[in-house]
Write a structure and sequence with these properties.
Length: 285
């Protein structure tokens, strides 16, 4: 076991920071042996079977090609649960958990909410909200049929009965007026010009359609979703976005211009402008 750990650290050290390597080690042994970090320490003197060693070597080989560990093992952790992920879905991020926490905090103790997740991917936001907003009905949409299949599979395996998923394009979707309490979206927001600064594990493996937008119109998804939300939300309903810090102030102006109130930009754990929220006024019909 010690030799396996040493090999992983040595071979990954040119590619990943040490804290990320330790996180990868925890994921590998949780996946292969169902060991917690404490178990890894307790079993450090164990001799691993040839089967497990071969599995580790295979994972290590793929990691050295910058393939994300979540795609290698087929799952990513989000809000305390393991979600199936594939290259057709984005890998759940810690920052997005903060968005879910914000929504849960704002709507604590309110039952029977109608929630709409746009660009749902693996369904991690929609399913997490379904479990944490009592008796709410959650719908997730995505333009990718493959992503919807993964999200549906995740909901079924987790027994998330009050959530459903459908293919739809936000640019052509017609809203049902005053029907929703919450709209949330983590849409594509990285400008094509930012690709040069992206890590290889993101650029070479995650779906570009869920990541990148044109430099000429970087807020196109936000504008379409805001227009949809102004009709679909009930008075007092709220719109939540994960955003690109570069365009935070511009997006705030757009939301105000479209008639939203209580428009706020929130920082993430890294002190970056990462989230926007806004309310539909009660007096708009």
């Amino acid at each position: 076991m010690l030799s396996n750990l040493k090999k992983i650290r040595q071979e990954l050290s040119p590619l990943y920071p040490s804290n990320e390597i330790e996180g990868i080690i925890r994921i590998i042994f949780d996946h292969l042996k169902h060991w917690s970090p404490v178990d890894i320490v307790l079993h450090r003197d164990d001799i691993l079977s040839d089967y497990i060693t071969e599995k580790i070597d295979n994972i290590l080989s793929r990691l050295k090609q910058h393939e994300p560990i979540q795609y290698i093992i087929g799952e990513g952790r989000f809000f305390g649960r393991s979600f199936k992920v594939t290259p057709d879905t984005l890998i759940p991020r810690q920052e997005t958990e903060e968005l879910v926490e914000m929504i849960i905090k704002d709507f604590a103790n309110i039952d029977d909410l109608q929630v709409f997740d746009i660009g749902t991917g693996s369904g991690c936001i929609a399913i997490s909200l379904a479990f944490n907003l009592p008796f709410s009905i959650v719908t997730g949409i995505d333009i990718s049929l493959k992503a919807i299949e993964i999200a549906t599979e995740n909901a079924k395996s987790m027994k998330a009965h009050r959530v459903s998923f459908h293919t739809a394009d936000i640019f052509t979707l017609l809203p049902q007026q005053d029907s929703l309490d919450i709209i949330v979206s983590n849409p594509p927001y990285i400008a094509n010009s930012e690709k040069a600064d992206m890590e290889a594990n993101v650029l070479n493996y995650e779906p570009h359609s869920a990541l990148f937008v044109s430099d000429d119109n970087p807020l196109c998804f936000y504008i379409a979703i805001a227009d949809f939300a102004m009709t679909a939300l009930r008075g007092g309903g709220k719109l939540y976005f994960e955003i690109n810090p570069i365009y935070a102030d511009r997006l705030k102006d757009v939301l105000i211009e479209k008639g939203f109130c209580d428009v706020e930009i929130h920082l993430d754990i890294h002190n970056r402008k990462r989230f926007a929220c806004a309310s539909k006024p009660h007096n708009i019909e």
